[in-house]
Amino acid sequence: xxxxxxxxxxxxxxxxxxxxxxxxxxxxxxxxxxxxxxxxxxxxxxxxxxxxxxxxxxxxxxxxxxxxxxxxxxxxxxxxxxxxxxxxxxxxxxxxxxxxxxxxxxxxxxxxxxxxxxxxxxxxxxxxxxxxxxxxxxxxxxxxxxxxxxxxxxxxxxxxxxxxxxxxxxxxxxxxxxxxxxxxxxxxxxxxxxxxxxxxxxxxxxxxxxxxxxxxxxxxxxxxxxxxxxxxxxxxxxxxxxxxxxxxxxxxxxxxxxxxxxxxxxxxxxxxxxxxxxxxxxxxxxxxxxxxxxxxxxxxxxxxxxxxxxxxxxxxxxxxxxxxxxxxxxxxxxxxxxxxxxxxxxxxxxxxxxxxxxxxxxxxxxxxxxxxxxxxxxxxxxxxxxxxxxxxxxxxxxxxxxxxxxxxxxxxxxxxxxxxxxxxxxxx
Length: 428
Hints:
By secondary structure, this protein is an alpha/beta fold. It is 33% helix and 29% strand. It folds into 2 domains: 1-45; 53-408, Metallo-dependent phosphatases (Purple Acid Phosphatase, chain A, domain 2, 4-Layer Sandwich), CATH 3.60.21.10. The chain is built from 10 helices and 20 strands. The strands form 4 sheets. Strands 1, 4, 5, 6, 17, 18, 19 and 20 form an 8-stranded mixed sheet that branches. Strands 7, 8, 12, 13, 14, 15 and 16 form a 7-stranded mixed sheet that branches. A 3-stranded antiparallel sheet has the order 9-10-11, with no helix packed on it. Strand 4 (98-103), helix 4 and strand 5 (137-139) form a beta-alpha-beta unit. Helix 6 (228-244) runs parallel beside helix 7. The N and C termini lie far apart (85 Å).
């Protein structure tokens, strides 16, 4: 019996020792985990204390053609509804601190009769859909700005402002600035937009060969390729003024280039270099209706680097292959840009650039066209969810993504992600 009791005591001591060791190890592990969490939290806190960072999303042309007007009209309610156009990209746009687009139509009211090309007038409900999708700023100056005369210009601005959207490129009166400065996540960002003019008629400026009405001629930011030196000097004065008013970074939205050409022309390259010399940080291009490359350029005068997106393509339109005999007009990109400010030095850098290929998916449902902007890469991984039900639709989406990747190139500084990603700091 004594021997048996002795064995029990030894076994008990052994088990107690093992259990104590396990408890001690668990406590040590927990301490290390908590310590690591604390270190990580401290690092994040230090990072947040040292930097401000703003996320920008930009897209290209929003165009409402005649067939699209018919598609968005609800016979039962008698109203136009555009919400479905952006439902698959809404989550991407809403992640931004500021989202921009080119509104290439007018909002001139139903009494002026809604129409597509060549003289655009769209229901103001397109602006409702854009607000719902997360857009904040719309460029209103382009070759279709005066499609419905000066009344259309003022009406478009009024409809935009009713929805708390901000306009660039056009202003209501001369008391308003020709640019916008807005603080975004602790960074004062200047926004300005310009459009090319068509050749002048005598001394009169034109858009789409129509003379710009006298009551808006000084309210629209336009430039002439024929008088580019004079106009670039005017632009430089505006940029200098923006800086003097506190703009720490400048985003320049510009309607330029040749339609349907996938490479920038000599004017685009020359103007981009001039804007870089003037201190513009980001140049966002629209108008060609196809995607053109993204690149960083460096000023030979100052050494400054600027990001140039020569063309973001069509975001939404009816320029399908069946209409244009051009597959590239169905494509667009959502450009994601992160701007970082060092709170100590006030140095501004672009800390990340990526893009998301988009494709305008048009299909038929209940004998009507349906238009949806889709994020191609994600869609191809989950086709049924995005209504890609036919082999031809899948092929077109795949072809869209491939052609976008090819034109965008292989730069390590431009990421091909489907989310906003961070890279090394790539702008001085």
